[in-house]
């Protein structure tokens, strides 16, 4: 019997063959004959003849050729309702000024979207923003108000007024406050207030002294900031021992540096080894000059991959990961998150959308110093595409809808993409200085993302082959690696 080309993705680990069925959102372990037949079917023919190798798969409902016919985000019809009732977080751009000058900062001049200035938010704008999230979160039990800079603690009295106002106006709604800081201004008075009001504090720390200081320098004299930051952390640990347990490090990694040097620091340096860690690479998004992969960066990635292998070994052998890399463990967490997305489905609907976009304005609503709304703090403030409203006029529904339906950019590619259910597309990744989102950037992102996703699928299957239980260890807590 003649059959249509199935909508699947084939891949293999060192010892086994796999098929990801897009309609079923399911991974199947298949044999070599099935793999070879399906590979030939995908590569050489639009249609294939059914054989005994795949007959059982068809009978079980797999290998459908069905694809999405219309790229439309499922939240589109209810978008006004979500924006009126489901805003979860508001991030206030307290100031655009900073007492550091970090070379890779989005305000450094190396990026298209921002530069340092003396502009700061007026308190009346901030209070209107707090009223806005309270009035637009009726379906949300807990809201988050974040403080963002520049360096937000340059305006500590402003932050105090915002927190006290929000607590007064909360109307019994639970509010979580959060802030990212370079930690240089954390006096006892400030820390006591933050601790009293349970402000979740993220401190920027990039590694050992020589690495941290190579990027994070004081604006006043261009000196490194490591000693000042570490001394403040030591003082918090001594005077507020319960608060230190809630602090998180944000580490921005320059892969020009040695992986082992950074990794050893966070594993063994007394002041930091018991504090939770989240790491990211220097952002290439909106950067004026692309980051070039050279020999040093290749060496960094090779060492990180080796540390990930060691983590896999410990997990398979059910050994403690206490001495494993705290940076590489985040790669495992990405695989664990993927495992939660692999929930079996029946068939792709006629109307669907790649799974990446959040609902802009509800997840991490960012309000800049002038009161303009953006989907989050990571997007370009100079992009007209990303400006989705203002505190005085509310949301621009049409702009929010356009970002929500980002899959409409070259939508035929999305309809035919095997990663449609597991996609990580975000509008900021394909934003441009033009009036429309960039098809070229989308193509580049999709190519890189699918390569990355395939590696995650292989790692997921590799761990399953050795009996790793994702259900009972879905995501490794950041603190579990440092027990």
Automatic annotation (TrEMBL):
GO function term, MF aspect, one: metal ion binding
UniProt keyword annotations, A-Z: 4Fe-4S, Iron, Iron-sulfur, Metal-binding, Plasmid, S-adenosyl-L-methionine
Presence of the UniProt keyword S-adenosyl-L-methionine in the record: yes
Top-level taxon: Bacteria
The protein's required cofactors: [4Fe-4S] cluster
Domain Radical SAM core: residue ranges: 82-310
Name recorded for this polypeptide: Arylsulfatase regulator (Fe-S oxidoreductase)
